[in-house]
Design a protein that fits this description.
Layout lengths: L4 E2 L12 E6 L9 E5 L2 E4 L10 E5 L8 E13 L9 E4 L6 E3 L15 E3 L7 E6 L5
Length: about 140
């Protein structure tokens, strides 16, 4: 299943257009997963490892190890976010591979150490929400 990119015009001037990069998967990736750059490949972002804690974007399609995958590195897209995360909340990478959590969820337990990766635009349901991906340098 491929995910769509959303037009973000009029959303307080944020992310007028999505920026998409073609990258190589370094493992299995599900459409909507937040991904981290590890060397020359992208893998599911996860705060359990320093090498995967900083998400660079959201995979727009599923991919297996070595396959090309399109990644939204800036803009508005549907992404894997913990159910119940409210619209307007800043999000970060948590302990579930590929999934973002509310940034304020970090109560010293180690989650959220990768910083803010985006902003939730809609209430997350079924672990999916419309988000704005925060651009990062990589």
């Amino acid at each position: 299943m491929a995910l769509s990119i959303h037009n973000a015009k009029g959303l307080q001037g944020l992310a007028a257009q999505a920026e998409v990069k073609s990258m190589t998967a370094g493992g299995t990736i599900v459409a909507g997963d937040w991904v981290a750059l590890t060397g020359t490949t992208v893998v599911q972002a996860d705060d359990d490892s320093p090498s995967t804690i900083s998400a660079i974007g959201v995979a727009l399609e599923a991919a297996v190890d070595g396959a090309a995958v399109r990644v939204c590195v800036a803009g508005q897209v549907t992404a894997n976010v913990t159910t119940g995360t409210a619209a307007g909340e800043s999000i970060t990478i948590g302990g579930e591979a590929g999934r973002a959590i509310p940034f304020d969820n970090d109560a010293g337990g180690g989650e959220g150490d990768g910083g803010v990766c985006g902003i939730c635009v809609t209430l997350a349901a079924g672990h999916l929400a419309t988000v704005i991906v925060s651009p990062r340098s990589y």
